[in-house]
Write a structure and sequence with these properties.
Helix content is 51%, strand content 16%. The chain has 304 residues and is α/β, with parallel strands linked by helices. The chain has a seven-stranded mixed beta sheet with strand order 3-2-1-4-5-7-6, with helices on both faces. The structure holds S-adenosylmethionine. S-adenosylmethionine binds next to helix 7 and strand 2.
Length: 304
């Protein structure tokens, strides 16, 4: 239910107007998310926009970045619908094109990912599952330290820090651009003294510390051998620890190289790596236009 008008959120209104005038394919995306999630969503998004992109120019650039990011997804998804395969690419190629491409990361990838977590309803539902099924459990269990592997924008780490007053977090990412964006986000929310990002290849340098909590969101589909990576994550997690691990399925993007077609495939890899699945959630990006057309899915697992 909408209890207020979106007019109470000026940055969202400006974003909606920008989409309507300059990026017609996303003309109704702000209204759709507002209709789905209401004022709590609007408040959270308005604050995030204001803190992360401080001027109208910065917000306009972030919207342009998101539009380019979403357009790339649409183009690659249309190709995937026809071929049934992702465009073949090695991890090294994806890393060079994306994670180590500072101009692309700052202009498109990171603002695109960041805004998508509020604008795409399946992404925001995954955020809600994270907060209620995972972070709230950490609070009740008194866990006040976590490691996030593949921090990207840093959104999930920031939400965990906000929901766990006094907790500290360690981010790990291979990309200096992600490191900068995530640390900028922590500073923008006054959380910088509780968080740092280490630059590491998590498939090679397994974090040494035994972590009571682990977060790994949308990294598996970026790797050539997700099961080997999951085994390493299991070794990092303390025996009594909990992890929140997700994957994007049937979702073509520039850096998606491992194609998961069903949530059961992710679950099987988690189990093979030694995890016990405690809860899971799966969301579709949209209803399929016809039976049999693959639709992007988000699948999130709380594991021990
Ligand atoms: C899709 S993003 C993850 C999304 C992120 N969780 C968020 O909320 O924004 C994938 C991230 O994984 C990082 N990554 C890819 N391969 C990696 C590796 N081998 N080690 C560490 N980080 C890696 C990329 O640099 C990128 O920041």
């Amino acid at each position: 239910m909408i209890s207020r008008d979106i007019g109470s959120f000026p940055l969202l209104v400006a974003m909606r107007d920008a989409f309507r005038s300059d990026h017609r394919f996303s003309a109704d995306i702000v209204d759709r998310a507002y209709n789905a999630f209401g004022d709590d969503w609007a408040q959270a998004f308005e604050e995030a926009l204001g803190r992360m992109f401080r001027t109208a120019e910065e917000r306009a650039a972030a919207i342009r970045g998101y539009a380019a990011f979403a357009m790339t997804s649409l183009r690659l998804q249309a190709r995937f619908e026809l071929s049934g395969e992702y465009k073949s690419k090695t991890y090294a190629q994806a890393a060079a094109e994306v994670y180590h491409n500072e101009a692309y990361m700052q202009a498109e990838y990171l603002p695109g990912l960041f805004l998508s977590h509020y604008l795409w309803t399946h992404h925001y539902r995954q955020v809600q599952f994270f907060e209620t099924a995972f972070v709230d459990h950490l609070r009740v269990a008194g866990i006040d330290r976590f490691v996030e592997v593949g921090v990207g924008t840093g959104l999930y780490s920031r939400l965990a820090l906000q929901r766990l007053p006094g907790a500290t977090g360690q981010g790990i990412d291979i990309s200096v651009s992600s490191q900068r964006f995530a640390e900028r986000q922590m500073a923008a929310f006054d959380l910088g003294d509780r968080y740092a990002v280490r630059l590491e290849d998590a498939t090679v340098d397994t974090p040494a510390a035994s972590a009571p909590a682990l977060i790994c969101v949308e990294v598996l589909e970026h790797l050539e051998d997700p099961t080997a990576f999951l085994r390493a994550l299991r070794r990092v997690l303390a025996p009594t620890g909990k992890a929140f691990i997700t994957a994007a399925l049937n979702a073509a993007h520039t850096d998606h190289i491992y194609l998961y077609r069903s949530p059961a495939e992710v679950e099987a890899q988690l189990i093979a790596a030694g995890f016990v699945v405690e809860q899971y959630w799966v969301g579709q990006a949209y209803a399929p236009p016809r039976a049999g057309v693959p639709v992007p899915l988000a699948a999130a697992f709380v594991v021990a």
